[in-house]
Structure formats: C-alpha cells, structure tokens
Amino acid sequence: MYSELNLNHESWLRVFTNNKVEALVNKHQRKNLYDYQGIIELCFKEYYRVLKPNRWITVEFSNSQANVWNAIQEAMQRAGFIIANVSALDKKQGSFNAVTTTTAVKQDLIISAYKPSDKMKRIMENKQSSTESALAFVKEHLQQLPKFLGQKGEAQLIVERTPRVLFDRMVAYHVQNGYPVPISSAEFQAEIAQRFPMRDGMVFLEEQVAEYDKKRLLAKEFVQMNLFVSDENSAIEWLRQQLMKKPQTRQDLHPNFMKEIQHIAKHEDLPELDELLEQNFLRYDGEGPVPGQIHGYLSTNFKDLRGLDKEDPALKEKAKHRWYVPDPNKQADLEKLREKALLREFSAYVEQISKSKRKLKQFRTEAIRAGFKKAWGERDYETIVRVGERLPEKVLQEDDKLLMYFDNAQLYLGV
Fold this sequence. Notes:
Layout: H1 7-13, H2 33-50, E1 56-61, H3 66-79, E2 82-89, H4 96-100, E3 108-114, H5 118-126, H6 131-144, E4 154-156, H7 163-176, H8 185-195, E5 198-199, E6 202-203, H9 206-218, E7 221-223, H10 232-245, H11 250-260, H12 273-280, E8 282-283, H13 292-301, H14 313-319, E9 323-324, H15 328-355, H16 365-377, H17 381-389, H18 393-398, H19 400-413
Parallel strand pairs: 4-7
Antiparallel strand pairs: 1-3, 2-3, 5-6, 8-9
Helix pairs in contact: 2-3, 5-6, 6-7, 7-19, 8-15, 15-16, 16-17, 16-19, 17-19
C-alpha cells in the first residue's frame, strides 16, 4: 500500500492519485510482479532516453525478495542499461520496519549502470554473430569498471572483472537486444586469455593493468568475496576461491565443502564434489614439473621446500593429488567438456517433459541455463518457453539468467 495511504489527505483535498501507472505489487490494484516489471521498465526507458551515452544511473533498492530484485534488473537491462556494479549501502540508522521486524533487509542495494556509447552500439549491430561483437562489449565494459578496490593494505576481488561475470553480462546484452549470442563460454574464456592481461583472476585492458599492478604491490593481502553457496555456480566459485588460496587434495576440500552446501536450494540437483572438480579444475598427478600455482603455494608456506626446482622429487611428492585452478587456456578446454555434459542433461529434461505434464522438481540449473543459451542461438524460442513453463515459478522468477531467456523468448513468440 502506497498511494492508498494518502486517501485521508486526498479526500480532504479532493485530488486523487492516478495509480494506474503506480509501480508496485498490490492485490487491491490487481497488479502482480509482471505488471510491476512492465511499469518500472517504462520508467527506466525514459531515464535511458534522456541520459547521454557513457553516462551513469544509480538506483537504490530495498527488498528482501530475489524475484523483485530480478524484476528490477531485468527492467534496467531491457531498457538498454548495462549493469556495472551492485553493492550494499549500510545506512546505519534503519527504518522502522528494519529495526522492528526480522524479515526486513538491514542494508539497501546500490545498482550502478551506464548507457553504452553510440560507437559500441554500431559495432554490435554491424558485427552480429561474430566474436568481434563479444569483444567490443568486453572492451567497453572494462573501461567502465573500477581498476582497483581495497583499503588498509588489502586488495579486493572486483567481481565484475571475472571472466564468468563478463560472459554473463555479454550474453545478457546480446539477448536483451535481440542479437544471437556469438560465442560459447569455452571460446570466450580462450579469447579473453589471449587478448587481455589477467591479474588475480580478473580481466583488464592493457592501459589499466599497470595501475592495478602498482596498487597491488602495496597491498599485503588479497581478499576474496564471501560466498553463500546455494547452487552449482556458486559451489564452483567457492571451490575456485579455496584452490586459489591453497591447492588442496579432495580429502582436504571435502569436510568444508559439505558444510557449505547445507543451504543448497531444494530443486538443485548438485553434482558430487568429484564431478565438480573433474569438470572445472585440474589435478597434479605427479608427472612432469609441478604447476606454477602449486609450486608458489608450497615454496611460500613450507620452509623445507623453498628454492626447490619444479622437478624436485620432494616438491613433486608434496604436490601430488592437489587440485588447482587451471590457466585460462586450459580452462577453455574444461568449459567445452562441461558444456557438452550440461547440454546432454538439458536434452534429457526436454525429453522428460515431452512424456509428462508434470513440472520438473529437481534439476541442474546450470544445465537449464546452458540449454536455454543454445536454444536462443538457434532461435528455438519454443523450447525455451516449453521448458520454462515446467520449471517451478519461484525458481524461474528468482534466477535472473533463466528469466531473461524466458521473457525474451515469450516476446518473440508473442505469448
């Protein structure tokens, strides 16, 4: 209830709010989440129209529901904005609800987005279905992102600069503008590794990396983001963070991994730890020189291993069976294998719903995402809508990537 709260004043003044375009979810006004998203999208389209290219919009947002957050994000991207950062704002003094209720959010989210340049839009339009459109997006997006985050001797991970997030942003821009996604995740990883310098798992432009290196030298620690593991994607990222800090054996990882996955969503068919490791990381089997990442960790943390050659038997024995994060070129090969496995699972889901009218109760969300992406590239919008309608509505509304494909596929089909 918002405009309704003005009723006493308005009846006295005899001037009433025109609430037909009031952006909210309200049973009395018969407005649901889809209505809210449509109205708020019109607002963002007007912001987009009046804003000059390469200029920014900052949105403060407060809501405890993921589906409302996704509606806001979807509306911004549909209007043409590119989201560059989401961060928390601690207002110190909470509202009445925040102080007195347990479900209210204590901090607001700050969404920073920008209007792309006319030059980039021309390139994207002229280079459709080619790798160049993906790289044009990445170059412009990297220009907009901060080069360094940190304070008091700490360097922080800039999530938007990680290859996975860059890929997601690139895909979102193509889908929202009706362009085919020109490149797979594996191909994207390989192109990024060849064309851009990387530091601490982050991607930079050539003209940016010197500034990062200079500030990174002054930082004693590198702080990874804290993750709440809720699905396969966040589980993989959690493993990546653990292995970046310390290459470990499966036995070392298992106890902490089991603690972290306690809050996995009920619908999520999470693969076993062994499968996640096999599909996303590499293990040193004792053959050949010790990989640089493992060598760096062991020589830093074990005095008796310092200064040893990578072929030294003592070093190789200590390094044996440890999992580590692959370099970007090998990561691309792993991505290809993983994507094939995910698409096989998606095909099984498509076959399953063709034989039954029931909704899918348990599935790998990553497989659905991979299948939707492939179907979008093939302009197979019917499959996206057909599978999307069999997913639990809450899952669809709370996953921004699935919602993006589903909504846009419905638009193309006129549903």
